[in-house]
User: What shape does this take?
Amino acid sequence: MTEGVRPLRVTLHIPRSFIGCHRIKDERMTLEASPGATVADLIRQAGLPEFEFGIAVVNGHRELLSYRPMDGETIDLLPIISGG
Assistant: This one.
C-alpha cells in the first residue's frame, strides 16, 4: 500500500457451503485493501476462486464484481448457481 493512504477494511460474507470446500475458517472474512480495489480483487485476495461468485450484495443492492466498496462495507457473495 502507498504510504499515507489509509487502507479500506471490508468484510466478505461467504456462503457456508464454501467453508469446507475452500478451507475457510469462518463465513465472515475482514480484509484490508487499497482504495479502488474491486470486489473481484477482494475475492482473489481472500484466496477464493473468483469464477464461483457471480453476485455481490451490498446494503441490499446487487452489485457487479467490478464494484469498488467503501470502507466498512459488508459484501455478501453469492455463487453463480444457487438453489434448494
Summary: The mean pLDDT is 85.
